[in-house]
Structure formats: structure tokens, C-alpha cells
């Protein structure tokens, strides 16, 4: 099978997984109150849906579901955990776009939530999505045992919190003035971007009741592709245009923010991406052909054009 055929097969799988999680999110984020809720304010829900149901690739949900499939996990449980993770990811984007953070006007080719609505609506939409994610995992409708749910909630809180994504965002804002070195950039990116991708792969192992060793292997795979994701993103910030990306490009350079691309150049970055794909494939080797789609995911991340 040629590389282009593999890419096509992966893209089909990604579209299928995206459609599944999109349908579930559309249902979960409707205006209809759920059991125990008093009301769902329509304007808040409209802002939430604008921030979530806006055409994202849904790569993180795919990583949850495909990692879970390696261990024969229940498909619906994996899908609900994937939807929870996408709520956290979407919340982070809504808040990152705010004027106090990255101050972006476009996200996925559409106005950001604070531009479409207002800053208060964006803050509340993000807050709602973050808390709803944990409700989804804990819900009786997510058919997992209590031990697995506690492990998922703990791992997601760690990945999203002060030692993970939000801590990474704080470092990212600080980097505009501090000009971190290579070690500092890697730490920042592992937290801001890599932590949720690492969780996605580890979560699949938790849902599938994998062994501790298998769970760690999947987490390490997630770390490798998380680094690759950010490297590819920084590369695209230099080489792509806003139409291709669906958001502003060249912002890191304009802000004087150091990245590994700015430190070492485009060719070095591409070599690192090749090495990270190889590392990801080695980590998946024990799973044989069952991990073929996850290997394709690593290549897709490293070679993506948007």
C-alpha cells in the first residue's frame, strides 16, 4: 500500500470518527436541559456550540477511540470520553482566543467566540465546557467501572490543569518577554499542547483496562506525537497562510516569541518530525497491525498542511 493510500485511509477514518463525536456533541450541547439541570440559557448554549461544533478535525477524539480499540474497549464508553476531551480542548481554544490571551479574531475560518458574541459569553462558554467534561465521564451513561472513571478524571484534571495545559498557556504568555531556551520551549509545548494529546492516548488505555505498562506505553506514544503536533504547528505558522490555516499565521514571529523553528530552522524541524514519527512507530510495534491507524496518525500529524 502506498503512502498516499495510507493517508487517504486515515483521513476516511478521521472523518468517520469526527462525524461520530460531532453527532454526540450536538446532542449533548442542545438547549434541552438534562436531568438535574434547571435551565440551559439559549445564548450561552449558542456560544458553546459555536466554539465546539465548528468543523475541527477531532484528532484527539480519534486518538482516544483508536487507543481504546487496541484493548477491546466498549465503543460507546470510548466515544463519550472522547467527547469529554473535545469539550476540554474546545474550552481551551475559546479562552486562548480571548484578548487577554492570544487575542485572535479567527478560529477554523470563523469568528472566534468572543468576536461572534462577547468576552463574557466566551468566558462562560469555556467554563461550562470544562466542567461539563468531567460530568460526562462521571455520568452513569458512560458505562465504565468506578475505578476507570476516577483514573480518567484524575488524568484529565492533571493534563488540563496547572501542571499541564493551563500552566503551559501561562508559560506561553510569559515567553513573549522571557525568550526561553530550547529546554524552556520544550517544557512549554509539552504542557500547553502535548498534555491533552498524551491524555487522549492514555485515556484509551484506561477505558480498555490495559495493564500499567501498556498504559505508560500509550502515554509515551501520546507524548511523542504531542511534540510532533506542536512542531508541525510552529512550522505551519512560518510556511502556511491564514486561508490554509483558518486562523492568523506569523503571530509568533510578530510577537517575538521563540519556537524551535525560530531557533533551528525549517529543515531541522522537518528532521525532528521524521524522528518523532519513528519513535511513535517503535512504541506501537508491540501491538502489530492492530496499531496501523495510530501509526498513520503520527504521520498525519507530522505532515499536516493545516
Automatic annotation (TrEMBL):
Keyword Transferase: yes
GO biological process: terpenoid biosynthetic process
Alphabetical list of CDD domains matching this protein: Trans_IPPS_HT
Cofactor annotation: Mg(2+)
SUPFAM superfamilies, sorted: Terpenoid synthases
Molecular function terms from GO: metal ion binding; prenyltransferase activity
Pfam families: polyprenyl_synt (PF00348)
A GO cellular component entry from the record: cytoplasm
Domain of life (superkingdom): Bacteria
Keyword Metal-binding: yes
Keywords: Isoprene biosynthesis, Magnesium, Metal-binding, Transferase
Residues annotated as signal peptide: none
Family, as annotated: Belongs to the FPP/GGPP synthase family.
Official protein name in the record: Probable farnesyl diphosphate synthase
Annotated organism of origin: Phyllobacterium endophyticum
Amino acid at each position: 500500500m502506498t503512502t498516499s493510500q495510507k493517508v487517504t485511509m486515515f483521513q476516511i477514518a478521521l472523518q468517520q470518527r469526527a462525524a461520530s463525536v460531532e453527532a454526540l456533541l450536538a446532542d449533548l450541547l442542545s438547549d434541552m436541559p438534562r436531568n438535574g439541570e434547571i435551565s440551559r440559557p439559549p445564548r450561552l448554549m449558542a456560544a458553546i456550540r459555536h466554539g465546539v461544533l465548528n468543523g475541527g478535525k477531532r484528532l484527539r477524539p480519534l486518538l482516544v477511540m483508536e487507543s481504546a480499540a487496541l484493548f477491546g474497549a466498549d465503543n460507546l464508553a470510548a466515544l463519550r470520553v472522547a467527547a469529554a476531551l473535545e469539550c476540554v480542548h474546545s474550552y481551551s481554544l475559546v479562552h486562548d482566543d480571548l484578548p487577554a490571551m492570544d487575542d485572535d479574531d479567527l478560529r477554523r475560518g470563523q469568528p472566534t467566540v468572543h468576536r461572534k458574541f462577547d468576552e463574557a459569553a466566551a468566558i462562560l462558554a469555556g467554563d461550562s465546557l470544562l466542567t461539563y467534561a468531567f460530568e460526562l465521564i462521571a455520568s452513569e451513561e458512560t458505562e465504565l467501572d468506578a475505578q476507570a472513571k476516577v483514573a480518567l478524571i484524575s488524568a484529565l484534571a492533571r493534563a488540563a490543569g496547572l501542571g499541564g495545559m493551563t500552566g503551559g498557556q501561562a508559560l506561553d504568555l510569559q515567553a513573549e518577554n522571557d525568550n526561553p531556551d530550547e529546554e524552556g520551549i520544550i517544557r512549554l509545548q509539552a504542557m500547553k499542547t502535548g498534555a491533552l494529546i498524551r491524555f487522549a492516548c492514555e485515556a484509551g488505555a484506561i477505558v480498555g483496562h490495559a495493564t500499567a505498562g501498556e498504559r505508560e506505553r500509550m502515554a509515551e506514544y501520546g507524548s511523542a506525537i504531542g511534540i510532533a503536533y506542536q512542531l508541525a504547528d510552529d512550522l505551519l505558522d512560518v510556511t502556511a497562510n491564514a486561508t490554509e490555516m483558518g486562523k492568523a499565521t506569523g503571530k509568533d514571529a510578530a510577537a517575538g516569541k521563540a519556537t524551535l523553528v525560530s531557533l533551528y530552522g525549517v529543515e531541522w524541524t522537518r528532521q525532528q518530525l521524521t524522528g518523532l514519527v519513528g519513535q511513535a512507530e517503535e512504541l506501537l510495534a508491540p501491538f502489530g497491525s492492530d496499531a496501523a491507524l495510530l501509526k498513520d496518525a503520527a504521520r498525519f500529524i507530522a505532515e499536516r498542511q493545516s
